[in-house]
């Protein structure tokens, strides 16, 4: 076991995954907001681990995040299989809702960035209805190029949010947060992938049975067969962990 600050972690191919359960994860991030300490939170799965192993730039981003939580079932399995288990899976979608629930007690400000103009607007409306004591201080879609980054960052900074949720796809959102986190200086900055699509009602989350059986990935594959190429990373990851068992949790 290693520590990132005071967070107990297990290294999966050099990426320090938090071993904390959901409740303690939320508590760490609550303290981050209260102390105004910027935290980049990555909710990672095996696909992201495999991508990081192939791309040193992605690996650097993941290793420099203040917190990497095990979003994918495969990560939880790998830690357990290699004898250094994490407490439980911490899905990004649920972590987002837990933070908003706690944030109601403090009237935290929230900025939403990413997805399409229709989805982001509907997400803002629905979250405000669900968490009336939260302040949605701003939102904008994810369709902007790097030439607009400065302007977008300045606009977000002006609203001084406590939480920033970014939905621009894993390959874009994490490097973007990493690049701008020192300028943004927001206590909790988290990439949330397709969460806004689910919150806005554009797509459905996997039924409870699929969640319980840890088959959310399979449900998504059934709904979006175009994901098959990406999903191949899952059996590749499992095979790699079984083959490399002795070395998986050794710091790279």
From TrEMBL:
The pathway noted for it is: Cell wall biogenesis; teichoic acid biosynthesis
Keyword annotations of the record: Cell wall biogenesis/degradation, Glycosyltransferase, Teichoic acid biosynthesis, Transferase
Which InterPro entries does the entry link to? TagA_TarA, WecG_TagA_CpsF
Pfam families hit by this protein:
Glyco_tran_WecG (PF03808)
The highest taxon in the source lineage is: Bacteria
The EC designation for this entry is 2.4.1.187
Look at the named UniProt entry and state the broad enzyme category this protein falls under. transferase
Catalyses which reaction?
UDP-N-acetyl-alpha-D-mannosamine + N-acetyl-alpha-D-glucosaminyl-di-trans,octa-cis-undecaprenyl diphosphate = N-acetyl-beta-D-mannosaminyl-(1->4)-N-acetyl-alpha-D-glucosaminyl di-trans,octa-cis-undecaprenyl diphosphate + UDP + H(+)
Which PANTHER family does this one have? PTHR34136, UDP-N-ACETYL-D-MANNOSAMINURONIC ACID TRANSFERASE
The record's function comment reads: Catalyzes the conversion of GlcNAc-PP-undecaprenol into ManNAc-GlcNAc-PP-undecaprenol, the first committed lipid intermediate in the de novo synthesis of teichoic acid.
| Family stated for the protein in its record | Belongs to the glycosyltransferase 26 family. TagA/TarA subfamily.
Question: What is the name of the protein in this document?
Answer: N-acetylglucosaminyldiphosphoundecaprenol N-acetyl-beta-D-mannosaminyltransferase
Report the source organism.
Answer: Paenibacillus tundrae
What does the record give as the organism's lineage? Bacteria, Bacillati, Bacillota, Bacilli, Bacillales
């Amino acid at each position: 076991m290693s520590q990132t600050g005071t967070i107990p972690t297990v290294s999966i191919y050099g990426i320090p995954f938090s071993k904390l359960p959901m409740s303690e994860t939320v508590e760490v991030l609550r303290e981050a907001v209260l102390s105004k300490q910027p935290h980049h939170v990555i909710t990672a799965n095996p696909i992201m681990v495999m991508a990081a192993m192939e791309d040193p730039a992605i690996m650097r981003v993941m290793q420099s995040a203040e917190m990497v939580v095990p979003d994918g079932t495969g990560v939880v399995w790998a830690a357990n299989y290699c004898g250094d288990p994490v407490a439980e899976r911490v899905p990004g979608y649920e972590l987002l809702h837990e933070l908003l629930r706690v944030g109601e007690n403090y009237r935290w400000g929230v900025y939403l960035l990413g997805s399409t103009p229709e989805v982001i607007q509907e997400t803002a409306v629905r979250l405000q209805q669900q968490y009336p004591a939260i302040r949605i201080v701003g939102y904008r879609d994810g369709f902007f190029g790097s030439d607009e980054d400065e302007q977008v960052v300045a606009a977000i900074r002006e609203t001084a949010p406590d939480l920033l949720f970014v939905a621009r796809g894993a390959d874009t959102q994490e490097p973007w947060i990493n690049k701008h986190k020192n300028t943004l200086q927001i206590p909790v900055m988290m990439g949330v992938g397709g969460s806004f699509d689910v919150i806005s009602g554009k797509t459905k989350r996997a039924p409870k049975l699929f969640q319980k059986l840890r088959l959310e990935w399979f449900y998504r594959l059934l709904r979006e067969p175009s994901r098959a190429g990406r999903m191949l990373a899952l059996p590749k990851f499992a095979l790699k962990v079984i083959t490399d068992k002795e070395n998986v949790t050794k710091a790279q």
